[in-house]
């Protein structure tokens, strides 16, 4: 339920934890695979009626408390005049990556015009759900987006963008600022179009040293969250020893990955609501194992200010019945 979700993000005690899953619309669902066989990925996300159907597929099956829009963090590359496509076995490939320090200061185009299909998607979701579940928008964070456009494709250690920081710190700063600019406008557009909640995925921020995070990224995270008049969630992996950085991001809630003990996270984050954090690999076990581990997360997180989720996205090999077990376990809680 939308109200349950929003109450948890305000830090309130809830009768049960609201629940949704990152990447809950995707390849583990047979109906998704069937529909996607008719469209390329970019065709699917840019066709609002198709993206709406995909977004609602897990809602029709599991009735989670939040429905996340079916889109991609790289959509904001378009207003900055980057082009990208998905390449089998590689992932997103940026066709015109940053070639050097003189290639980072890019003007931001008209976000509302160039990514208008996202606005229509959110309007459709809000109209269809009509308050029965929270509509969740999202955007990629500056460092994660910068990693893609500097390397031109996914990298394991994000060395190309870290090399830019080492050799050309001001160019690195400028590139992050351009992504912050476009992300602010993009999330404000999502709020206008009908999102109830937004999440910022700066997934790779943990690859920065704590000092670099504080200098380059933290002020931008604060600017992004402060600019959006909606409840916001911050997600980054690899910051288990530096949760205070996420707590200082300006987000209303912090989403933690599965390497973090959620009880420890609650202690470190104080009154800040938390989201997470079942290991996605646990959904590859049997349903009873999923239920047991899910109950452990719920108990450790406590009854106030907790949104149940995974510590990252649903794996494509996940059995559908295990996603059902995860959601049903949350809904069976009685406090």
Brief descriptors of the model:
single chain, alpha/beta, two-stranded antiparallel ribbon, 14 helices, 47% helix, globular
Q: What report would you give on this structure?
A:
- This protein has 335 residues and is an alpha/beta fold.
- The protein has helices at residues 2-9, 30-36, 41-46, 48-62, 111-114, 116-129, 142-151, 159-167, 169-193, 210-227, 243-247, 262-269, 287-301, 320-331; strands at residues 66-68, 84-87, 91-94, 134-140, 197-201, 232-235, 253-255, 274-278, 306-310.
- The strands form two sheets. The chain has a seven-stranded parallel beta sheet with strand order 1-4-5-6-7-8-9. It has a two-stranded antiparallel sheet with strand order 2-3.
- The two termini are 17 Å apart.
Task: Provide a quick synopsis of the model.
The chain has 335 residues and is of the alpha/beta class. The protein has helices spanning 2-9, 30-36, 41-46, 48-62, 111-114, 116-129, 142-151, 159-167, 169-193, 210-227, 243-247, 262-269, 287-301, 320-331, and strands spanning 66-68, 84-87, 91-94, 134-140, 197-201, 232-235, 253-255, 274-278, 306-310.
